Amino acid sequence: MIHCNRSAFCLLLFVTLLHSVCSDFQTLAHLRANASDKSQSRAVVDLLRRLLGNRSRDFIVSVNRTLSNDTLDVCELRSAKNNKILAVGSTGVAVATGIYNYLKYFCNCHVSWSGDQLNLPRPLPPLTGVLRINTPHRFRYYQNVCTQSYSLVWWDWPRWQREIDWMALNGINLSLAFTGQEVLWQEVYLSLGLNQTELDRFFTGPAFLAWNRMGNLFQWGGPLPQSWHVKQLYLQFKILDRMRSFWMIPVLPAFSGIVPEGITRLFPQANVTKLNPWSHFNCTYSSAYVLDPRDPLFQQIGALFLTKVIKEFGTDHIYNTDTFNEMVPASSDPAYLASISLDPQAIWLMQDQVKALLHGVPLGCMVILDLFAESMPVYSSTNSFYGQPFIWCMLHNFGGNSGLFGTVESINSGPFNAIRFPNSTLVGLGLTPEGIEQNPVIYELMSELAWRKEPVNLSKWVSLYALRRYGSMDENLTAAWQLLFHSVYNCTLLQYKNHNRSPLVHRPSLRMQTDIWYEPTDFYKAWKLLFEAAPGLATLETFRYDLVDVTRQALQLLTTEFYKEIRNAFQAQKLPDLLTAGGVLVYDLLPELDRLLSSNEHFLLGVWLEQAQSQGVDKHEAQLYDIDARNQITLWGPDGEILDYASKEWGGLVEDYYLQRWGLFVNTLVECLDRGRPFKQDVFNQAVFQVEKGFVYNQRKYLSKPLGDTYEVARRTFLKYYPYTLKRLK
Ligand SMILES: *[C@@H]1O[C@H](CO)[C@@H](O)[C@H](O)[C@H]1NC(C)=O
Ligand SMILES: *[C@@H]1O[C@H](CO)[C@@H](O)[C@H](O)[C@H]1NC(C)=O
Ligand SMILES: *[C@@H]1O[C@H](CO)[C@@H](O)[C@H](O)[C@H]1NC(C)=O
Ligand SMILES: *[C@@H]1O[C@H](CO)[C@@H](O)[C@H](O)[C@H]1NC(C)=O
Ligand SMILES: *[C@@H]1O[C@H](CO)[C@@H](O)[C@H](O)[C@H]1NC(C)=O
Ligand SMILES: *[C@@H]1O[C@H](CO)[C@@H](O)[C@H](O)[C@H]1NC(C)=O
Ligand SMILES: *[C@@H]1O[C@H](CO)[C@@H](O)[C@H](O)[C@H]1NC(C)=O
Ligand SMILES: *[C@@H]1O[C@H](CO)[C@@H](O)[C@H](O)[C@H]1NC(C)=O
Ligand SMILES: *[C@@H]1O[C@H](CO)[C@@H](O)[C@H](O)[C@H]1NC(C)=O
Ligand SMILES: *[C@@H]1O[C@H](CO)[C@@H](O)[C@H](O)[C@H]1NC(C)=O
Ligand SMILES: *[C@@H]1O[C@H](CO)[C@@H](O)[C@H](O)[C@H]1NC(C)=O
Ligand SMILES: *[C@@H]1O[C@H](CO)[C@@H](O)[C@H](O)[C@H]1NC(C)=O
């Protein structure tokens, strides 16, 4: 989660370190997969069976590590007897990626978070000669520490399995694997003498663990049930096994110095500093206790934890420690920072101090994630991190927000600029979104660029994307996608980093942000083209998703227009205008949006809540998780500390949360005009907080299966609201 108003901080904020034990890292260059070639092949065969059913038999796969003589992943595909395709690659990941490339570009197939299009030609299109897919990047990294909470927190094994398949197909070979660590922390602290009460006041609830691990937040949403620990541990075993079966390195957690307050009871002499609360929280839930790295206890706790990690999880020697995310370190003394060389708190220093930190670490002991490189690359202003290896990462999404967004031009050029940078220490590319399951096109593009030698022709690339996403070529859909790439997906202005700023998903006031980074005309044209193509394609999951998502974006844009009318009418004291605009928004547009979203399985609040509740072993736990899940996407803290940061546009949430707020706002304005009173934001805030809180605790059940016909709702919405876009275009 990133909040930054001061750009000096921003610049460095996005650096985090991956740390590997030095001696091991030196050997990592020569390290070979633990999983044998044979078992990696088997992993790919199983993946293909999950993906393609019995058509997977049309592929012959083989992993042969000697295929690569420079340790860079490669896959070679050729036609074999009986119309089969033979794929030989240097690792399981390489073979999966090679096959996905063939599926995309020879079979027009597509795999995504929002559905697959796997209408495989029969027989498979033959290859003449050898199709060679290779990468110049040693690492293809995936996940942000926040993804763990915003997207993966409630996942069961089938969902994880699907994600790891997606990762393999998209070439990922280095990924965070942070699941299940709390049980190990619990064991460490209990063994040191803390009691359960103290631990219950330390861990947050599941939906907030990412910030607990970073030292931002404690206790909120907790206590963490013992059943959680057990389930997560078993999940982690499966995740690790599966990742390693493809020869994908799981990045494991390490000690960063954050300790429970109880440590000060047990070790009164220990050098522990209490930090100021984070973000808008007060000390009740947010005051980290940080152990000085030079204190012998630091080594002791670090070693206890690492021993448990290795015993339970095994290790591939790459760890991530992420302290002080957005927190000012207790000391900015470079010696202090260098002494905890595995600590990313350097992110808070000015550049010359970053230099001091990075110079304190022997080269090769550290890989740096340049976390938001598509918008704020740090490597270029630090001489490639003063010689430390780094991974160029695309962050793209904050808080798992809904909303179409992309910076396609910088994604398409950034990685190649980073390679060409003088004396570049680039060792890989990465995907580091705070939340996933949105804008699949951007992630497919970024993953693919890791396997390319030069930027793609975006216009051509996106037309092929449309072809494989829907399985057929249609000039109107090609045009629609080109318009999308030209508008919403072509953000070039830094201030719009993809945090959904739309009034729709924020607490209403008279001063909301209404500007956008693209030309609405282009976007509305795309909407029209997509809508017109719908009758023939409505049976395709991928198409239905896009129809909902684009229509959703159109209604989001129109909400801004109605908001402006409401505000102007209020300020001009025109009651009839206020009633008209407010009436359309509250009584028609938002209810239609809710119906639209409710008609698609990918946009349901009920799914998120059901996944959360199903993690509980009894009613009490189910309720705890339900509240956690709701709080994260709305108030984000007991009192709206980070209100609406992780907003979503989902069926159920629009009606019971956003719509209620807008209703109250419009009513309040009407009342003010009626009685000739000014609108008082602080009074409104108090009232609306009750609405927000009411949603979090309402215990209502929401649809977890879609309701209604997407095409019908989209059609009604289009016919009703498209004319408004024309009116506004005049
Ligand atoms: C493959 O699976 C499909 C459906 O899953 C089935 O209809 C077909 O008969 C199977 N073909 C073979 C050769 O097993
Ligand atoms: C792997 O490839 C090498 C040549 O690159 C070949 O000599 C060897 O036989 C292959 N191994 C297997 C198991 O196919
Ligand atoms: C391996 O290296 C040799 C010599 O550098 C080169 O000719 C050959 O093409 C390489 N093979 C592969 C599979 O990269
Ligand atoms: C990742 O890919 C690189 C090069 O492409 C390869 O050397 C390495 O073995 C792969 N796996 C891991 C876990 O690094
Ligand atoms: C845990 O320790 C604290 C501090 O000593 C104490 O107040 C509390 O009663 C203890 N709780 C349990 C369950 O032992
Ligand atoms: C505790 O650590 C701080 C810096 O974190 C340092 O300034 C101080 O000297 C240390 N105190 C002791 C007693 O070691
Ligand atoms: C801190 O926040 C909590 C939760 O909102 C609240 O209950 C408490 O009163 C606040 N404490 C202070 C000192 O403001
Ligand atoms: C790799 O294999 C060795 C020997 O089979 C085993 O001892 C080690 O634990 C394995 N490492 C991992 C990370 O699984
Ligand atoms: C690149 O490294 C070389 C050798 O260390 C050095 O001479 C040269 O100045 C560096 N170039 C840049 C642009 O930093
Ligand atoms: C990019 O591809 C389009 C076809 O989609 C083509 O018209 C255009 O000329 C290409 N641009 C470049 C710079 O090659
Ligand atoms: C594209 O849209 C135009 C205008 O609506 C229509 O005439 C044409 O038939 C459409 N093309 C296809 C392939 O559907
Ligand atoms: C994105 O916008 C820039 C200028 O604003 C333009 O040069 C570029 O062609 C656009 N890219 C696409 C894909 O439309």
Automatic annotation (TrEMBL):
The keyword Hydrolase applies. Residues 1-23 form the signal peptide. Residues 43-125 form the Alpha-N-acetylglucosaminidase N-terminal domain. Residues 461-719 form the Alpha-N-acetylglucosaminidase C-terminal domain. The keyword NADP does not apply. One of its GO terms (molecular function) is hydrolase activity. It comes from the Eukaryota. Keywords: Hydrolase, Signal. Residues 140-453 form the Alpha-N-acetylglucosaminidase tim-barrel domain. InterPro entries: Hex-like_dom2, NAGLU, NAGLU_C, NAGLU_N, NAGLU_tim-barrel. Gene3D superfamilies: Chitobiase/beta-hexosaminidase domain 2-like, Glycosidases, N-acetyl-b-d-glucoasminidase. This is N-acetylglucosaminidase, alpha. It comes from Sinocyclocheilus anshuiensis. The lineage of its organism: Eukaryota, Metazoa, Chordata, Craniata, Vertebrata.
